[in-house]
Amino acid sequence: PAASLDERVEKNNKHPEESIEENYKKITKELATELLQQIKNNTPAFFEELVIDLLVVMGYGGSREDAQAVGRSGDGGIDGIIKADPLGLNVVYIQAKRWEGNVGAPPMRDFVGALDGEGVQDGIFITTSDFNPAAKEFAERSSKRVILINGDQLAEYMIKHNVGVSTTKTYEIKRVDSDYFAENTENA
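RE: above sequence
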């Protein structure tokens, strides 16, 4: 006879749901690594467009028309602009760095300086790598509101908001509905 689920759990010390969860996390981690590699294999212009697409899907700006990639050589530290409200009163500037090495204080200073030069309060700095401590400290101490998104967070947001990914399989885990059986037992 086949062993019961409880007997199998005792033997492996793991419930099947735990195994599914662990494997899901592994698959997601591999997907995140693959996403970052795909981004790095593309052009900086592609990355700037991707960042705009992601932020719009996340709810920044009303639509893709309210957001634009403006990055180019000598862009003054601004790669994208999003109108955060329908009238365009609140504008968010974006810097996107498709780098291998960590972002340091100089690019952060340039970005905050660009915000200041444009009279903008809010900025989002996104990188495929990470921010070194000096860059993080500069952003925190700035009078501007600067959100930092590193490569791991970028991949996580892309997966969560279905940007650059597609679903291949979905599993539902079901359980016995005790309430259903309790209602029918009372009537028996």
